[in-house]
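Input structure tokens:
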């Protein structure tokens, strides 16, 4: 009986690569890094990859094809995709593409409390983030150049990341300019007023006893 397995970026990557040909775990990890997919899929820890492969195997989405033995390398288990895995990969992929999900990233959470900093300190922090994003964007451009032999459809994740980095940079630069010009500012009074509206007077805390 097949056990249920949840979709994840790494699980989808394993199933997707096995669409092309049977592979052993090292081959999967190597391909993901060669194609620059380690920027969007966490394959740094091989233990996580083996754990994911084991879950997919137990769920019947992949199966052992053969075991390779070579004097130069440790024994390697080669996996292949099952029909159930093929259907699962297509379903997961369609769902991930179609449904936006709130993954609770840190940056929007920090922005929601940016008023705890002074405008000058907020501008300095955002300026530092912008510099880091420029560096990441330059690194991404270099990475894309390294895999220029791949067709564009294989690099859609890089294309998306480049667009997101560029859009965030443009937004950051506009906010930093507002902060430095003084058109976006706040002070203790505004924060105290907001705090006064958190729990209206007379409202009973439902958790109070």
């Amino acid at each position: 009986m097949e056990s249920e397995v949840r979709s994840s970026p790494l699980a989808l990557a394993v199933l997707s690569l096995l669409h092309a040909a049977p592979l052993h775990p090292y081959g999967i990890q190597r391909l993901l890094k060669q194609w620059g997919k380690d920027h969007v899929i966490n394959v740094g820890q091989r233990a996580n990859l083996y754990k994911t492969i084991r879950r997919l195997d137990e769920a019947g989405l992949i199966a052992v094809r053969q075991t390779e033995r070579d004097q130069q390398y440790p024994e390697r288990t080669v996996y292949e995709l099952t029909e159930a895995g093929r259907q699962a990969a297509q379903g997961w992929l369609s769902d991930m593409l179609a449904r936006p999900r709130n993954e609770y990233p840190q940056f929007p959470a920090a922005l929601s409390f940016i008023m705890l900093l002074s405008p000058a300190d907020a501008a300095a922090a955002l300026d530092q983030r912008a510099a880091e994003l420029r560096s990441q964007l330059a690194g991404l451009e270099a990475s894309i150049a390294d895999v220029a032999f791949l067709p564009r459809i294989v690099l859609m994740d890089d294309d998306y990341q480049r667009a997101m980095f560029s859009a965030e940079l443009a937004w950051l630069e506009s906010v930093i300019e507002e902060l430095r010009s003084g058109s976006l500012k706040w002070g203790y009074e505004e924060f105290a007023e907001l705090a006064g509206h958190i729990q209206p007077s007379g409202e009973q805390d439902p958790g109070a006893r």
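The helical segments are 9-20, 25-34, 46-58, 83-98, 106-111, 119-146, 156-181, 188-196. The mean pLDDT is 88.
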